[in-house]
Amino acid sequence: MHTFSITLRQVPYSHTDFLRLCNELDQFLNLAIGGEDKREKYKKYNHLDTMDYVIIAYDGQHAAGCAALRKYSDTEIEVKRVFVQEPYRGQNIGGRLLAHLIEHAQESGYKRMLLETGAFLAASVRLYRRYGFEQISNYGDYKDMPESLCMGRDIRNP
Question: Using 50, 70 and 90 to split pLDDT, how confident is the model at 113?
Answer without folding.
Answer: very high
